[in-house]
Amino acid sequence: xxxxxxxxxxxxxxxxxxxxxxxxxxxxxxxxxxxxxxxxxxxxxxxxxxxxxxxxxxxxxxxxxxxxxxxxxxxxxxxxxxxxxxxxxxxxxxxxxxxxxxxxxxxxxxxxxxxxxxxxxxxxxxxxxxxxxxxxxxxxxxxxxxxxxxxxxxxxxxxxxxxxxxxxxxxxxxxxxxxxxxxxxxxxxxxxxxxxxxxxxxxxxxxxxxxxxxxxxxxxxxxxxxxxxxxxxxxxxxxxxxxxxxxxxxxxxxxxxxxxxxxxxxxxxxxxxxxxxxxxxxxxxxxxxxxxxxxxxxxxxxxxxxxxxxxxxxxxxxxxxxxxxxxxxxxxxxxxxxxxxxxxxxxxxxxxxxxxxxxxxxxxxxxxxxxxxxxxxxxxxxxxxxxxxxxxxxxxxxxxxxxxxxxxxxxxxxxxxxxxxxxxxxxxxxxxxxxxxxxxxxxxxxxxxxxxxxxxxxxxxxxxxxxxxxxxxxxxxxxxxxxxxxxx
Length: 488
Prior knowledge:
By secondary structure, the chain is α+β, with helices and mostly antiparallel strands. The protein has four domains: 12-52 and 187-227, no CATH class; 73-185, no CATH class; 234-337, Orthogonal Bundle (Helix Hairpins), CATH 1.10.287; 342-482, Heat Shock Protein 90 (2-Layer Sandwich), CATH 3.30.565. 49% of the residues lie in helices and 15% in strands. The protein has ten helices and 13 strands. The chain has helices spanning 12-17, 22-74, 153-156, 184-232, 250-299, 306-335, 346-355, 378-395, 439-444, 451-461, and strands at residues 87-93, 98-101, 106-107, 150-151, 161-170, 173-182, 342-344, 364-368, 374-376, 400-407, 410-417, 465-469, 476-482. A five-stranded mixed sheet has the order 8-10-11-13-12. It has a four-stranded antiparallel sheet with strand order 2-1-6-5. The longest helix has 53 residues, at 22-74. The protein is elongated, with a radius of gyration of 52 Å.
């Protein structure tokens, strides 16, 4: 897609600057997140603090101006207003003459110097800047000449003030009331808070980085121990296991999983070595017999003995061929190679396979239920039945029974015989490769101990199971295969 959003690639130079270890990346990420969070919180805190202090100063000025307005609306104002709330107040009449001030705007000069600025006219708008002080000819009313005060103009022009202007009409005529609240406390509080944050935020960020570095190191220490142990394990010492920490967290579960994997690898290695040894032994016996027969034929070139020798050699050759075919099938099953599957009717499939068995030692009776369908491979399912019946034929005394039934979501195949049966302690061991409960009889009947092992693997590849279950007499082998469509 042309409009697909592509992830930006990190330049190689910048990639080299990024931390590589998990510990460093975790510390960097935690530090960056805390830095951004604290930086944003600090900026928001300073903004909220400044806004609150400004609102408090404005409310103070509004309150002080309101009291003066209320007083001026009822009576004549005194020349010196009573201080309240820390706000400076001055009152001008319609001509701009100063009528009243708060004491903080008055001084007692030794000589009456001229004021630096002429008086300002009544400023328009709700919040004009503070007016300049009146000229030297403007004196506060109701004060004796020797007590004439001087209005400090510089104080009124201080920019660090919140000025409120109100108008009122009263006994003194129309008046304009100005109230100014100092913002020095606001700036001082902001400076103090900013300094505290400038010192505290870096310290807190460094503390978070140090704690994250230490905690991450302690958390990853078992991972490093697991890695080091796994790195030293080779194919010859699969018995070794990684240490499992007593934390019960993800690292402990990782160690348990690694040990379980090593258990399976060790078991697979043991099975492989045992399989190779058993296969070598099984192949060596018929090859040795076949060689002996050929050597006898060469040593005694009697044409009358050749038919018997050739028959024995052919029998051993067939045994070798069957064994090689079984080994190849086991190798294919172990490799889990994909095979073609189709929807099959096991009743018809098994009926055809049993009908083709014309040389069985004991008769086989079949009871096959219709209406069962499985998804599988025709050749492998036929081989599953054949191996189970062949095993029963080796040990049966008078009969072999084959039953096929549908039980819930499973198609159940049972093969029974009236032979000596399978002891309870050996019901699982019989499915191991090259296992014979009666070794002499199995060799006499041509068994290599692979039939049941192959049958269980075939059932497993079809999503089913094969087990030796209890029976009153003889052996009872039960294969359960999932019925097609049962998952729906």
